[in-house]
Amino acid sequence: MAYNLLQGKRGIIFGVLNSDSLAWKIAERAREEGATFILTNTRFAARLGETEKLAEKCNSRFIPADATDVSDIEGLFKSSMQILGGKIDFILHSIAMSANARKGRPYDDLNYEYFKKTLDVSAMSFHKVIQTARKLDAMNEYGSIVALSYIAAQRTTAEYNDMADAKALLESIARSFGFVYGKDKKVRINTISQSPTITKATSGLKSLRLLMEYTKRMSPLGNATADECADYCITLFSDLTRKVTMQNLYHDGGFSSVGLSDKVMEAIDKCFDVRE
Ligand code: NAI
């Protein structure tokens, strides 16, 4: 159901790769709610993915930009304001990449060039996007900037590797820049800490399916889906959340507040021979 929550709002959405991407679902919901926006990703991702297809469906435009490259981001903001006809009301940062994880380098044998890349792509790019927006005075008052995060920033999670450090930095940038940008321009900055969600890249990973089984059993409301993540993002882009800023907001069915659930107790009971 649509509520016209983003009627008249202009946005930039980073990170649409294919129809499983969280950013894809968020773009579709933003369109339903009346927003106009620019889709962006690297040139390489655009060749691999279906971003142009979504742009057509959403009556949107695709502008390539590497989120680690400040001159690309500047060009993106300038073109977006021109195409959309004014300053920007919302930005989605839905970007992550770890070469260490991809190449199977464990946390105690990291390649430091890859590690720098993980931090640059997955976290520092958030700072670059916000700093560029502010220097160009590209955001409207009470504009909303949201990045997607994961609970491994707070709690060590097996196999999440150096991405955990990137997410911790990402969430810290939301607080630090949320203060600076809120004070003078009333721009809000938050991160959403989303449940693990199947995407094309992760669907074949047994470890992700195991993790999702665990988080589902731990969470009173179960895992939050990609569509539900999109709904939550829309509320943060909308005027209904004008005083929410500098927060890491858990969107995880309650997982982050649970120590041990009855369902996990039952599973442990079945697997292990624990005697009274
Ligand atoms: P995805 O692979 O569809 O999205 C990642 C995007 O980052 C891709 O579109 C990729 O092209 C883009 N990207 C990589 N390097 C870039 C660069 N230099 N410049 C611009 N874009 C670049 O995967 P998904 O799952 O949709 O992830 C989106 C965000 O959600 C990520 O930040 C991820 O950590 C976060 N997240 C995902 C969860 C999941 O289980 N899928 C759970 C919690 C958070």
Can you characterise this structure?
It is a single chain. The protein is α/β, with parallel strands linked by helices and 276 residues long. It has a single domain (10-203, 219-257), classed as NAD(P)-binding Rossmann-like Domain (Rossmann fold, 3-Layer(aba) Sandwich). 45% of the residues lie in helices and 16% in strands. The protein has helices at residues 22-32, 43-48, 51-57, 70-84, 99-102, 112-135, 163-185, 206-218, 226-237, 262-271, and strands at 10-14, 36-41, 61-64, 88-93, 139-149, 188-194, 248-251. It has a seven-stranded parallel beta sheet with strand order 3-2-1-4-5-6-7, sandwiched between helices. Helix 1 crosses helix 9 (226-237), helix 4 runs parallel beside helix 6 (112-135) and helix 6 (112-135) runs parallel beside helix 7 (163-185). The radius of gyration is 19 Å and the shape is globular. The mean pLDDT is 96. The structure holds 1,4-dihydronicotinamide adenine dinucleotide. Residues 14-17, 21-23, 41-42, 45, 66-68, 94-97, 121, 148, 150, 194, 196-197, 199, 201-202 line the site of 1,4-dihydronicotinamide adenine dinucleotide.
